[in-house]
Amino acid sequence: MERAESKTEVFETMSEEETYKLGERLGTQAQPGQVYTLIGDLGVGKTVFTKGFAKGLGITDHVSSPTFTILQVYDGGRLPFYHFDVYRIGDVEEMEEIGYEDCFFGGGVCLIEWADLIEEILPKNHTRITIKKDLEKGFDYRTVTIEAQK
C-alpha cells in the first residue's frame, strides 16, 4: 500500500481561548473545496475549535455540534461551511442519504467531527486535525496536530 505524503504541524494550547484562536486561524486560511477532519475524545475541545474555525470564515451564527442532525450548514461567511458530526453514524450509507458528496466536493469548506468513523469515504486530499488532552500538563492543556494528507 502506498503511503500518503503529509505535512504535519503540532501546536500546544493552554486554554479554551487558545484552542478557539487556533481554529480561527485555520478558518481564515481555508479555501473552497477543502475538507478538514477533526479527531479527538469527548471533551477535548472539538466544538471549541470548530467555533473558532467558523469565526475565521466570518460566520457570526451560533455554532454547535450537530450530533443529532449530522450536518449543519452555515452560509453567512466568506464560504459555505459544512459542519458534520458523524459520531452517531451507524453506516456510511447514512452519509450518502444526506448528500455528503455535494459538501465534500463542492465550493464550500467541510469540517467533520469523528471523521475516523467514515474514513473509507474521505477524499484523499484532506487535512486531519487531532486534539488530545494531557492532564499531567494541566486540565486545559491540548496538543493539536494538523496533518495535510496528499
Q: What is the helix fraction of residues, given as a range?
A: 10-25%
Class of secondary structure makeup: alpha/beta
Task: Sketch the major β-sheet.
Answer: 7 strands, mixed
| Name of the CATH architecture | 3-Layer(aba) Sandwich
Q: Which superfamily, in CATH terms, is the homologous superfamily?
A: P-loop containing nucleotide triphosphate hydrolases
From the alpha carbons, calculate the radius of gyration and give it in angstroms.
15 Å
Pick out the low-confidence regions.
Answer: none
Count every beta strand, where a strand is a DSSP E run of 2 or more residues: 7
Characterise the protein shown here:
This protein has 150 residues and is of the alpha/beta class. Helix 1 packs across helix 2. The protein has a 7-stranded mixed sheet with strand order 1-7-6-2-5-4-3, covered by helices on one side. It contains 4 helices and 7 strands; from the N terminus they run E-H-E-H-E-E-H-H-E-E-E. It has one domain (6-149): 3-Layer(aba) Sandwich (Rossmann fold). The radius of gyration is 15 Å and the shape is globular. The longest helix has 14 residues, at 16-29. The protein starts with 5 loop residues before the first strand and ends with a strand. A hairpin with a 6-residue loop joins strand 3 and strand 4 (81-85).
What's this entry about, in short?
The chain is an alpha/beta fold and 150 residues long. It has helices at residues 16-29, 46-56, 93-97, 100-104, and strands at residues 6-13, 35-39, 71-74, 81-85, 109-113, 127-133, 142-149.
